[in-house]
């Protein structure tokens, strides 16, 4: 059997063995509840949770008390968006976001829209970046929150976060960013970037699933979020529930490792990604890179292979794990809403593959991927009447029109 190659790290990452080692004692001998403050087992758990707060906060130049534990970035986004909406609704009912956000931002905004809030959805440019002038024009007197993701999960495009933060500060509007894909991959400074609320998750940085964090600014301004979960008033009253101590320990140590190794990892992984794009470009005609080539995560490459259906392409190299879009929407047969928002046509959007590299990928794996993907593309195109028409001189738009 061919060795399995994992290139779907934006969906989830494998658990780093060093993280697992740090977590194991908190499943066994250090099993206490962090809220039990009357005995040693509880003190052990509370101490571990406090250390993890410091480790996550250090990644963000935030205060440890600004870290709120959640079950993951989806919950963090819901607390940030719904919590701010509820807390500041008397000040205003207008929220701004963008069309290429993760569903964990889009869906809470749509929920609020059904409950009397006005939502403005910005359309990014073809590279996936928003226009700052359009954002400035969209901010109104009743705007209470701007929610723009740090880096896109499908195409890797990084937004001008510092400029967005500065604009929001100047307008007196809170700024939330879903940093799930950027956290642990690029430097983040919530103070310098003017970020008021930030969401992140453990399983994107070689930590465990089921744990995440929401960074909530405590001063200049002090941000308040109404709770989404009630029952005990844990986590500064924003998120009740017994803390997942082993998961929190894992997220803390995954953050610590990322802080130490992020810069070196980014250089190495970007080199592998660039080699992947170079190899695919050299061996395949009519392929297109989606998103930015410069303002982009080091690990992400989204490619459309014209005249090939993405699902069929993935089935052709079953030993390589990739994605045709976000993991949360991969069961849908619809083309990627992210690519469509960028102006990519349905046919090319259906032919897109997301390659997301990680800490444990090797140069040998990349060479094997180039070879297997290229062979599969060529085999499928040989069976495609549209590709045959293209080789006879019809362009992509003409062959698409012919297919209808």
Helix content: 40-55%
Order of helices and strands: EHHEHEHEHEHEHEEHEEHEHHEHHH
Strand order of the largest sheet: 2-8-7-6-5-3-4
Distance, first to last CA = 40 Å
What is the number of E strands? 12
What is the SS-derived class?
A: alpha/beta
Radius of gyration, taken over Cα atoms and rounded to an integer in Å: 22 Å
Q: Shape, please?
A: globular
**Average pLDDT, to the nearest integer?**
92
Outline the low-pLDDT stretches: 326-330, 398-404
Give a description of the structure.
This protein has 404 residues and is of the alpha/beta class. It has 14 helices and 12 strands. The protein has helices spanning 17-23, 40-60, 73-87, 103-113, 132-138, 161-171, 190-193, 245-283, 310-316, 337-341, 346-350, 363-382, 385-391, 396-403, and strands spanning 5-6, 67-70, 94-98, 118-122, 143-147, 174-178, 197-201, 212-216, 287-290, 300-305, 320-321, 352-356. The strands form 3 sheets. Strands 2-8-7-6-5-3-4 form a 7-stranded mixed beta sheet, with helices on both faces. Helix 13 runs antiparallel to helix 14 (396-403). The longest helix has 39 residues, at 245-283. The chain is globular, with a radius of gyration of 22 Å. It starts with a strand and ends with a helix.
Task: Summarize this structure as a short list of keywords or feature phrases.
single chain, 404 residues, alpha/beta, seven-stranded mixed sheet, three-stranded antiparallel sheet, 14 helices, 13% strand, disordered C terminus
